[in-house]
Amino acid sequence: MTWFSSKYGRNSGSPFSRGILAIVSSLAVLCFFCFPATPASAVTAREILDRMDDLYRGESSHGEMTMVVVTAHWKRTLSLEFWSKGKEKSLIKILAPIKEKDTATLRSGNEIWNYLPKVKRVIKLPSSMMSASWMGSHFTNDDLVKESRFVEDYDFEVTFEGRRAGKDIVEVTCIPKPDAPVVWGKVVVVVRLQDYLPLESAYFDEELHLARTMTFSDVRTFSGRTLPARMVVVPADKPGERTEVTYREIAFDLDLSDEIFSIRNLQK
């Protein structure tokens, strides 16, 4: 029995729950997560980007993580619980500290709401807020809900394959399509050659200046999947600042009710 099923209910009995698949990302294509040590040329740029987008999702997911935000003036630590179902539904709730407990963000389809328990208000976010900071961190609302997908919103190609900084890597450069609803002017993704797990993503603004760098580390196995448990975002214009996210638990491919992703549940 998984951590989730023991806490919340029945596991779907997916291939993951049976321990059949060993993988990296939470992306939806199950066989993709086996990560054999095949050469990079055997995997297309499209497959690498799909893995990146789905790394922490799967058909559904539920877990807990710790987020630490460090700025020039303060440090803040949040304990978070999250759920996802398909590519359209996500819910994140703050568990601690007490003063922020139950603050939550819900995405259903293309709509996003925040719940502020102090004032007991649900606020719908406009799409223009997707690039805004989430809860004072260096992650954006789009990072949390993953509205955009690389293969849908960017043109892309492998721009480097070989050894760099002592590691065998594949680099994929992504340029947004003319009408894509994305906030970046370019994104450069670097993955490990041996298993295509992400090492780094560099995000550039519309003038192609580096805006932030996201690094991935602390590879662990959750529910039969292998993925980086720690992500760190460093803004280029504030190198002394960062946001760290560490996954404590993740369960994949669960039988989650749609009620979890409702406005009513957002306020509980």
From TrEMBL:
Which InterPro entries does this entry report, sorted A to Z?
LolA/LolB/LppX, TP_0789-like
Reading the lineage from the top rank, the first entry is Bacteria
Q: Signal among the record's keywords?
A: yes
Uncharacterized protein TP-0789 domain location is: 86-268
Q: Which residues form the signal peptide?
A: none
CDD domains hit by this protein: LolA_like (cd16329)
Q: What keywords are assigned to this protein? A: Lipoprotein, Signal
* Family matches, as Gene3D superfamilies: Lipoprotein localisation LolA/LolB/LppX
Keyword Lipoprotein applies? yes
**Entry protein name:** Outer membrane lipoprotein-sorting protein
